[in-house]
Write a structure and sequence with these properties.
The structure holds 2 protein chains of 2 kinds. By secondary structure, chain A is mostly beta strands. In chain A, 0% of the residues lie in helices and 55% in strands. Chain A has no helices and 12 strands. In chain A, a hairpin with a 2-residue loop joins β7 and β8. The radius of gyration of chain B is 13 Å and the shape is globular. Chain B starts with a strand and ends with a strand. Chain B is mainly β. Classes of the chains: A mainly beta, B mainly beta. At the A-B interface, β6 and β11 of A face β4, β5 and β9 of B.
């Protein structure tokens, strides 16, 4: 089974500042998908961003961007210009190309200070 | 935009009772999943369902659990005899042609 590790249980960021969340994973596959999900207090799981391993270009969605380092098996999420609504638990997730189930990390709680 | 719905949002049950958690996936989706999240822990895969049968299940998904799609729209998770440790948030998800997982809002199950 794939292992996804998020080493930061909690991160705090000042409003309008930038925060980076770390994620590493373990796999022997060469092709796979990586995701960041946001879980606000409502506990709904919301897809933030996805990255295909075969793409060298880092994915970007508005204020959210990733730093995908395939050789290092690292997939960090950068939240720029942090807003109060970004406060949530963020989960990194992995899946293989022919298997749609997701393997999640333990999550990082992001607090945004006004 | 179509979305996955789940009912109830919160279920309280006594240990040993049966519960059925309901999900309505997005209508043209073909793959369906249940995940579980014990409070403060990570989201864990329970079971996947495709073409009216289980395609994969985790070691958590023991004989106390079952899934079915009784009428072509609902997708249910049944726990036959609940235990205290079944208390968790249960998420349903479905996958469409873009292979993205769309999660429902979850059902919080509390076993007392």
């Amino acid at each position: 089974a794939q292992t996804v590790t998020q080493s930061q249980p909690e991160m705090s960021v000042q409003e309008a500042e930038t925060v980076t969340l770390s994620c590493t994973y373990d796999t022997s596959e060469s092709d796979y998908y990586l995701f960041w999900y946001k879980q606000p207090p409502s506990r709904q799981m919301i897809l933030v961003i996805r990255q295909e391993a075969y793409k060298q270009q880092n994915a970007t969605e508005n204020r959210f961007s990733v730093n995908f380092q395939k050789a290092a098996k690292s997939f960090s999420l950068k939240i720029s210009d942090s807003q109060l609504g970004d406060a949530a638990m963020y989960f990194c997730a992995y899946r293989r190309p022919n298997d749609y189930k997701l393997s999640f990390g333990a999550g990082t709680t992001v607090t945004v200070r006004a | 935009e179509p979305e996955v719905t789940q009912t109830p949002s919160h279920q309280v049950t006594q240990m040993g009772q049966e519960v059925i958690l309901r999900c309505v996936p997005i209508s043209n989706h073909l793959y369906f999943y249940w995940y579980r999240q014990i409070l403060g822990q990570k989201v864990e895969f329970l079971v996947s369902f495709y073409n009216n049968e289980i395609s994969e299940k985790s070691e958590i998904f023991d004989d106390q659990f079952s899934v079915e799609r009784p009428d072509g729209s609902n997708f249910t998770l049944k726990i036959r005899s609940t235990k205290l440790e079944d208390s968790a948030m249960y998420f349903c998800a479905s996958i469409g042609m873009n292979y993205e997982q769309y999660f429902g809002p979850g059902t919080r199950l509390t076993v007392t």
